[in-house]
UniProtKB/TrEMBL annotation:
InterPro entries: MADF-dom, TF_Adf1
PANTHER family linked to this entry: MADF DOMAIN TRANSCRIPTION FACTOR, SI:CH73-59F11.3
Top-level taxonomic group: Eukaryota
GO biological process: regulation of transcription by RNA polymerase II
GO CC terms, sorted: nucleus; transcription regulator complex
Protein name per its UniProtKB record: MADF domain-containing protein
Any Pfam family: MADF_DNA_bdg
Occurrences of domain MADF (ranges): 8-98
Length: 107
């Protein structure tokens, strides 16, 4: 999937909170129907859209964990800023990712 389609995929999913917002009641989520709409908008199969989304989420979780791990009280030189082009576009997912346990320099 090219960069434009990936950006469009992110936008299409973001507009359909039933796909990604775990705080919504299951009755409001209707993910299958929403994925059909995403696939149609991108002119790809539902499976292709879902597989690409899973890969994006996995990469986002990795990047977000690096950002969180290296910015919780560490020195400025240890701060990590993601250079992955889709990181900022996917920040709407941050509340759906379990927080890493905090670390301490005092142990």
């Amino acid at each position: 999937m090219d960069e434009n389609k990936v950006a469009q995929l992110i936008n299409e999913v973001h507009e359909r909170s039933g796909i990604w917002d775990k705080s919504l009641a299951l009755s409001k989520r209707n993910k299958g129907h929403e994925w059909n709409k995403v696939a149609a908008a991108l002119n790809v199969s539902k499976t292709t859209a879902q597989n690409k989304w899973k890969a994006l989420i996995a990469k986002f979780k990795h990047e977000h964990n690096l950002v969180q791990f290296h910015s919780s009280g560490d020195g400025l030189e240890d701060t990590y800023q993601s250079s992955w082009p889709y990181y900022k576009s996917l920040l709407f997912l941050k509340n759906n990712i379990p927080a890493l346990p905090s670390k301490s320099n005092l142990s």
